[in-house]
Amino acid sequence: MAQISKLVIDTKTWARGKRKQITYLLGPDGKQCCLGFLGSACGIFDDKLEGAVAPSCVLSEAKSWPAGLIENVNDYWLRDTPWTDEAVTLNDMDNRKISFAERTKKLRAHFKKFGIKLIFKK
Fold first, then answer.
1. Average of per-residue pLDDT values in the chain
2. d(CA 118, CA 36)
3. Euclidean distance between CA atoms 40 and 14, whole angstroms
4. Fewer CB atoms < 10 Å away: N or C end of the chain?
5. Is 40 buried (19+), middle (13-18) or exposed (0-12) by CB count in 10 A?
6. In the predicted model, what is the mean pLDDT of residues 82-111?
């Protein structure tokens, strides 16, 4: 399990809050949600992240994520934890309902609960 204490999110390639648009860990346009950046920082290769919507969708890399992001239901099924679900919600909230400043503030506080300092790079 990876131990990440600092995570840099490049706002130019950060996928977030587009109305009626799915955000991916790594989308076909090369953009990543906050958890996609975390997956990359944990050493998960792009081909594993591409097209996945949550850490639990990357079954082959379950041991690469920090402890507490996903949990085993059985040998064949993983699920995201409430912490992960909240990260997805904050990342994907419609831009019309939350400002950039408020989103980054909430995500920083949320990741801090997990011991990760978020840095947003422009």
1. 92
2. 13
3. 13
4. C
5. middle
6. 94
For 119, the enclosing helix (H) or strand (E) is: strand 117-121
Span between the terminal Cα atoms of the chain, in Å: 29
For 12, which DSSP code? Answer: T
Say how far residue 115 (Cα) sits from the centre of its chain.
15
- The pLDDT value recorded for residue 1 is 59
CA distances from 82 to 3, 8, 68, 77, 120 (A): 19, 22, 9, 16, 23
Convert the pLDDT of each residue in 46-95 to its tens digit. 999 999 999 999 988 888 999 888 988 877 788 999 999 999 999 999 88
- The yes-or-no verdict on residue 96 having pLDDT over 90 is no
Q: Distance between CA 73 and CA 5 in Å, rounded?
A: 27
